[in-house]
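Appendix B. Raw example, untouched.
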Amino acid sequence: DIESRASENDAIAKETNLDSFLSDVDWDLAKLELDLALEGLGPDELQEMFIDALARDLEEKNSFEAAGMILEEIALQDPLVGEALLNALSPAEKTKLASALAKGWAEGDPMGAWDWITVSWMDPNGEYLDRKLQYSLFYDALDVVLTRRKEYQVAADLVRQEYEPELKEQLAELIAKRVVSDNPSDALSRIEFDSDDEIDQAILDAIVDEWSQRDFLGVKNWALSNEQQVSELGVRKVAKQLLLNEAELDLLEFHSGLGDVDKRDAAAAEVGRLTARREPDLATHWLNAIQSGPRKQIAVKGALYELGHDDFEATVGLLDGVYDVRSADRLPLMTDALLSWSRVDVGIVESYLASGREVYLPRTLDEFRKYVESSL
């Protein structure tokens, strides 16, 4: 088996360096054996093997990959030695093997690895030498913290240090994927989140989004028990998945179980938006469940956007289902809708205005346009 072969290869590796591994026909199996064998070697032996692997680069197709594995083990044992070895390489080799150093360093010392990635890829003026490479190193290092160390709190703390929106988003999504692939409830119980912290909320939103796509009932139950940690965006993600998976009773339970009115309104708004085209009556029901007047207006506007310009009567029908014709909240929404439709089908707007169904709007298109201009 692999364990016994690795034990034998431990001794062989010291004597013949990489020969016993690189000559193996099954390189995937050889990598597993090499990985086990490296754990039994000291710094000096590892350095010799690393130099040997690089010297063989043109001779052995797998030697460069082996060099990365060796450097990763060196970085785990003594990151400063690993850094010195990496810095002695050519720029091309350094770029290819930087990830190995970051991974090994992060496994033994996450904060040290993070600091190295932050500082070592800047020039004296503070400009980044290779932003794309640096992002990938942050990603690889964080993945090690999540998968090998299982330290979700440490991972969250590391991400809090970053300021670049793109990088924060990538790292938050990585945490979300690893948390959800593990045991979400257990993992989240081991992370202290500040609901007012932008980074924390971004991580939580990413976790809820990922989790809701894999286990919509599990995340629903967690969200109801931990509502204070779930943002309105997170609530929308849960409601969306419950709707898409036709879990109608669970959706109703989720909506009614939310204690915060704004979050209940957010759930209702999302369902109203998503059902506007295919189930207008259901959309109307959910939009009417929104308690806040301004939030209802925003939600109806979102639902109207989903309807587009496919069916004028559907647009009017949605507004009729949510607002009385004399409602002041209806007026700006209908005005915007008619103005938008006038760019697509002037005739249908003229006919509608002439019908007098809108008590607060003029009955001709010209007067309607003057009314809009005067309202700007």
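End of appendix B.
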